[in-house]
């Protein structure tokens, strides 16, 4: 039986500023800067990543982290069935919201969002499918380089990737957006789901499907 996840990852809030990558010749901020930390952050500029019909009768919000193995299990397994059964058929509007355990998950998010909503879910699939490789690539420099490779595989050129990864204000805004969402919906672990405004616990896909069908009145 497919499961939504085999467990949960406990969410930890992070500050986006102060994450630096260094090598023998250079040191530069990949995410965050003093300017970004001091800036006024407008979280309304963060685009919601949505699949399915806008007027679908059931809305599902998933909170997930790119570095959470249980989220990877969901996205490489039960999510595909959920998409086939409910999202692609216009019954579910699916909203994906990132949770940031660490800088690596934030970097992954910035790559996934780098070329806009049209490529977001496809890049997210690549990130989750390769999670066990890129998260274990080595130190920060090696990990971000693996994320760059995923971005290039998705058709994003190097200059655009660097601009996305070095956008400190964007990083700060993403973290503030995540914190607002998590506080409002009481998110403390991933993956977490909100179905038509109600927080849903981890359960088998069969039970999750039954819950959706109840919301549909079928």
Automatic annotation (TrEMBL):
This is Thiol-disulfide oxidoreductase D. InterPro entries: Thioredoxin-like_fold (IPR012336), Thioredoxin-like_sf (IPR036249). Residues 46-214 form the Thioredoxin-like fold domain. Pfam families: Thioredoxin_4. One of its GO terms (molecular function) is oxidoreductase activity. Keywords: Disulfide bond, Oxidoreductase, Redox-active center, Signal. Gene3D superfamilies: Glutaredoxin. Belongs to the thioredoxin family. DsbA subfamily. It comes from Ruegeria denitrificans.
């Amino acid at each position: 039986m497919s499961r939504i996840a085999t467990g949960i990852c406990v969410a930890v809030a992070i500050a986006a500023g102060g994450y630096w990558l260094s090598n023998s010749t250079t040191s530069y901020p990949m995410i965050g800067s003093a300017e970004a930390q001091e800036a006024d952050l407008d979280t309304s500029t963060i685009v919601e990543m949505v699949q399915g019909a806008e007027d679908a009768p059931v809305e599902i919000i998933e909170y997930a982290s790119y570095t959470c193995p249980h989220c990877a299990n969901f996205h490489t397994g039960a999510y595909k069935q959920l998409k086939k059964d409910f999202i692609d058929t216009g019954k579910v509007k699916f909203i994906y919201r990132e949770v940031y355990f660490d800088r690596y998950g934030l970097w992954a998010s910035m790559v996934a969002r780098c070329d806009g909503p049209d490529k977001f879910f496809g890049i997210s699939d690549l990130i989750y499918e390769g999670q066990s490789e890129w998260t274990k690539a080595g130190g920060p420099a090696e990990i971000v380089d693996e994320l760059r490779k995923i971005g290039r595989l998705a058709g994003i050129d190097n200059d655009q990737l660097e601009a996305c990864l070095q956008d400190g204000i964007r990083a700060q805004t993403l973290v503030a957006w995540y914190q607002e969402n998590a506080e409002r919906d009481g998110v403390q672990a991933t993956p977490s789901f909100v179905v038509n405004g109600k927080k849903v616990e981890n359960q088998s896909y069969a039970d999750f499907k039954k819950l959706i069908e109840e919301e549909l009145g079928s």
